[in-house]
Amino acid sequence: MNIRRAIEQDSTRGSGRSSADLENLKTNPRTLAAAALSAILVLALVVRLVGIRFGLPCSEARPDETTVVQAALQIGGKDFTPHFFNYPSLYPSLLAFSLMVYSVAGRLTGRPGGFAGLTREFAVDPTNLLLIDRALSACLGVATVWAVYAIGRRMAGRGVGILSALFLALAYLHVRESHFGTVDVPMTFFATLALLLALKGYQDGRTSSFLASAFCAGLAASTKYNAIAVVASTGLAYVLRRLEAPSSPAIGKEPGGTVAAGALAAPAPVGEMLATAFALVAGFLVGTPYLFWDWKQFVRDSQLEVREKMTGGPWGDLELGAGWVRHLVFSLPEGLGLAMLAAAAVGSAIALRRRPKAALVLLAFPFFWWLGVGKSHTVFVRYALPLVPPLCVLAALAVDGIAAFLADKWRAADVPRSRRGAAYACVAFGLAVAILAVPAYRLVRFDAMLRQTDSRVVVGRWIEENLPSGATVGLSGYVYVRPSLWSVPAQVDAQIGRMHRGISDEELRARRDYVASHAPPAFHLLQFDERSEAFADLWTALPAASPPDYVVAARYPLAAYISVTPGLQARLDREYTLVRRFDSFAADVPAERFDQHDAFYLPYTSTRDVVRPGPTFEIYRRRVRASDSASTAPAPSAPATK
Fold this sequence. Notes:
This protein is mostly helical. It has helices spanning 3-13, 20-25, 29-49, 65-75, 90-108, 114-124, 127-156, 158-169, 172-178, 184-204, 207-221, 231-243, 270-287, 295-310, 323-336, 338-354, 356-374, 388-412, 417-450, 455-466, 489-499, 505-518, 566-575; strands at residues 472-475, 524-529, 534-537, 550-555, 576-582, 616-622.
């Protein structure tokens, strides 16, 4: 009996043997696997929580987090509707429940309770609410590690399950996205859970497994619409199982399966198919029930999301190619490492040869997902995230297959059984280390960089401490590059207004009064209008009566988010003097390191020559001319670099 067959029998019969060395050590493999999995889950949680406070209290340090929190606060409001369906509502609903728990705990400590109190807190200081959002995403990321373990175990035993979990626990792309309070990691969890249940359904043939898989597929689609692709695995598992004889062995017991004579002609039970379809729809509606009383908004937002993100052209004027190629040459190689991708390719071949039907079930979801996102030229790296869990399982299958192959060769050479087991473990360990070396190093660097204070926070504090009260400050670029200036009432006031479309005038006025009493006036903010090449009020868009006393210019190598246009640069050269510079990165950092479609101000690949998250900022003071009146803004300091 070879090493490979011993592992398979252990996973299906609980014989207590997963390899020769475990047998000799007389170790209970279930206990050993449970201990290893627990350690991996703890490791996965740690690497996802380190640096999770990045950018705070800046609310736009990670795009889309504010949108998710606003939707959750809307759900907890008086009309129980997010008024936002670009994303479905399952994750905002989970977040709303988490915020409700936080609110109840706040009442016990004397903090204003209810969602009205949470709204005020988020407007004044979003730190705690964003931390809850990010922590929820991180926990679902850890839950995905468990689901991947279960998939690997069903494919080839506990050893493969442990390797699969370890690979996902340290997969750079998954760890990176798990720091963010957005919908991508939660969607990946529900899709992976649906994939696990589809594989279980193919193994045990129970209708309840297929119904559960379809329900989880509906939950995944209720987190992000295109996750509906996972139903391909559910449907294929159902068809393959029903084509087999009722007495055929489960996939974990023997590779492949037998097809009963005449089974191809037997139609699938209509009742089961209808029940599965109902479970799919029910899963979606459980997560997004609000569409029933906000139907028009749902149709409008969901159509816009599908049109722009799934079949969209270039992001702005930036053309990076179609997703079919971009994700294969950039998102996945940089997010997993070339070694893991190569191992996944080998694992696919091994799985298709040894247990082809189970492999097809595993591969159906990533294949149809890749087809779905591949057509679009909007190529955020996070769009490749659902591919990561299946690829980790395939990579683990490759490690296990190569190690078992070498152990079998040594068996033919009359190597003692104990040494064959040790050789199997050493080869598997060496391959795992080689596969994880690059992604583990990259995520350690990423976590370390997240612990640095974001430049938007640094510059916001410097402005509040050094610029004279009442000065006009001109800003450049999108909201994502604005300094964190929470002492400006207008900024906080606008934040509340954005969160609550449709609340009563009395309630909105009360919240504005609260903000005004807690944030004394400081600066008047202007925004540079690229079209008119002039400054306008940041909130009303009315033309400014005079140029700003100071201009805050943000620079970063993201071509889709240029914040200093040639017109603004000419004006700075002509009318302003540089008084302070805050460097976040070296000037020669290549643009190819960045996810160019995403306004996240850290490189996706190497963080070499990067000092901190956030843009590089330059503070300019307007030069006083003879025709000007007395200066309203004295110089705070001489030019400097920090």
